[in-house]
Amino acid sequence: MSINEKIADTLIENEVGFITTVPCKQLAGVIEEVENRPEIHHVPSNKEDEGMGLCAGAWMGGKRPAIIMQNTALGVTINTLATLTQYYRMPLPMLISYRGELGEPVACQVEMAVHTKALLNQMNIPTYHFHKREDAEELDAILKYTFMCNKPVAILTDATFWGGY
Amino acid sequence: MIRSEVLKEIAPILRDQLVVCNIGIPSQELHAIDDQPSNFYMLGTMGLASSIGLGLALAQDKTVITIDGDGSILTNLGTLPTVANNVADNFILLIVDNGSYGSTGDQPTYAGKKTSLSAVAQACGCENVVECRAEETGAVLQQAIDSRQMTVIVCKCESGNAKMPVITMDPVVIRDRFMKAVQA
Predict the structure, then answer these.
(1) How far apart are CA B19 and CA B92, in angstroms?
(2) Are A50 and B76 an interchain contact pair (Cβ–Cβ within 8 Å)?
(3) For the whole model, what pTM was predicted?
(4) CA-CA distance, A47 to A53, in Å (whole number)?
(5) ipTM more than 0.90?
(6) What's the CATH code of the domain at A93?
(7) Best interface-test mutation with B: which of A39, A41, A80, A88 has the largest number of B CBs within 10 A?
(8) Please, which residues bridge with residue A156 across strands?
(9) Between residues 9 and 28 of chain A, which touch chain B (CB distance below 8 Å)?
């Protein structure tokens, strides 16, 4: 089974039924997998804060949401995470490509990579880092944890996890 | 007519529907005019009322009305293509377009100058876009509800705010009673 299939399976097993995505090259495979699963309503969004708004609405409408996005977008979501997701106590699994880590070919991606964990830490967002393929085994527990505590939770997935560029 | 007069007039229509209301004075006005558990008041996060409303409409079957503003639509202009391409026939986006940032001191927006939000919505692919005068809002809104077709309404009204108290309700209370209204 591919890693993309495994991630989609785990999301579906945890009844995640609404996923919004903003593309990243590293996430292309998982986004395609999500798009092809009839159990998941996939709504591509134009910006990550917009996507978090969609997720907030979907959750209040009775669907478990998730967002798939790149770490460089964390900056544009800080206000939304604080004043919507956290303030109203809403669950939000964030599957994030961790660009700018080992193996990164684009120097500018490193500029946000060095802020990624610090920003998440500052926001008190529980953060998990998938570096090796087997780390994905924890996704199931992370999703259960997210919907137990009604918080945004970040899953950083680096280039090594995805198998390079 | 200013926004608070529009809200007063449409309050009896809104009462039976799920309403997602824009941040700032619009939420304060709606809260003071006719507080309902079926109203979701945004206390922060400018720009996302339309996104929250669309997500809610896509996730369940009840009619959802988002009360937005021209300033907040401009803040999150990417929302209109998302709305257009993810049709939810139980979703109505009511943009109260007074040409100004009402909550911050009535500074003019570009929607009050050269930019037509109804033309933008149409260009984004929204199929049912109605621009109306403030006085017509009630009739247009009722028609949109009855049509069961996703509709974007741009209500052109005058700039100005009613003096209403800040909402002090806890956000989790707002969200919890709203979710119970969604499930009811």
Answers:
(1) 10
(2) yes
(3) 0.98
(4) 10
(5) yes
(6) 3.40.50.970
(7) A88
(8) A96, A129
(9) 17-18
